[in-house]
Amino acid sequence: MSHFCPVYPKPRGKLASVWGLFRSARHSWLDGLSDRSYQMQMGEVHLPGVDLYMVNDPAQVQRILADEAPLFPKSALLADALRPLLGDSIFTTNGTQWRRQREMMNPAFAQARLEASFPVMAAAADDMMARMDATAQAGDEIDIEIEMTHVTADIIFRTIFSEPLTGADALRVFEAFADYQALAPKLMLPSLFGLRWLVWPWTLARSRRAAAEIRQLLERLIQPRHQAWLAGNTQGKNDILSAFMAARDSTTGAPFTFQELVDQVAMLFLAGHETSASALGWATHLIANAPGVQERMAVEAVAAMGHGPAAQTHMKEMPLTRNVFREALRLFPPVGFIARESAQRCPMRDKVVPQGASVVVSPWLIQRHRNRWGAPDDFDPDRFEREESRDALRNAYLPFGMGPRVCLGAAFALQEATLILASIVRGFHLAPLPGHTPMPVGRLTIRSENGVRLRIERRVHLPGVAA
Fold first, then answer.
1. Could you tell me the CATH number of the domain that includes residue 318?
2. What does each C-alpha distance from 34 to 38, 256, 281, 355 come to in angstroms?
3. pLDDT > 70: percent of the chain
């Protein structure tokens, strides 16, 4: 195959000064990275507000995220930035509170098991294809990021609420979260640099409005269901919201309060679609620029699914499509930086990390590390089938994190992405839009600053496959 190297922020020749880092990070976390960032095992930066340690060494990553995870709790700074949107959910809490929540929520995730969730995914994918077909008939270009946000939000929405997400609500979520993301660095950076006074009141107010936009949408659906549940009407929909309402604390027997329900649903809704939408947006960009891969995927999709409805058993018959998504996750991991705090003073490699320091594990750097991957910046989904990649895949690939806080939706996301990508390439041909180059920015997730705009055409012929 001919490899495609997507554009990404080129690393600096040397590490920026403290104030250079401040200026660049206000735009994107990726802009402050240097050449050395992609080669080092561990680096440190001492900012006015915090000591920051970037860790790429696989043994230390295992220690931080898995073996000694309680000693490296979630960053309080990140939790503060996300709390207006996610409240005190399992994404922001630590310790006893996190363990209680996780224990109560675990049974609910049975509603998201692959067999149960596939019909929901298939229905949302069919609606996606209808929207894309209307665009293709009009001969228009498409901002595929918006469509990928719509379909993934629709899938998790149906899984939680047993209802589809309308186009108007999907656009509101996309725009509100995009606004929230853009403001996040401006709220977090002043603390890192000892400049809390630099958070303008109107920036904080705008961020809270964006969070409230999303939470109000969720509250509107949760409230009547919760009131009916409290009134004793427990015979309803068999979905995640019902399972959350039925959950009980194993010690006290208490259920989630209404506010706790909103927090956990907000977390699941955002985490359940934003990360997949980010990676799928990049995946479509990659295959649009690698036509050989796209044609192989189209042949694979028709060989597996034919021209009829998709079935869950078909998903295992499309390894290339699955590897395209895995490669998109490698090149553009939705969560590019995983921030933890050191709960105590501890030695790490040749350094001593002080108590309270920020310890950052970066899938973005680890998955592009110059000493672990061949052609690390190239789009090459076939690398997942080669023996030479095994060590890197085992030690330098963590798009879903690891340890006790590993993403519970990894298998859900892989099935969802395989279905969505296979449906798209079976029905349409994607091509890059001349003059448009998506520019990745690292904020809460890694998205394109200027969208992912593509040409879309109905597919009328599949090489080697009779219609």
1. 1.10.630.10
2. 7, 45, 26, 26
3. 90
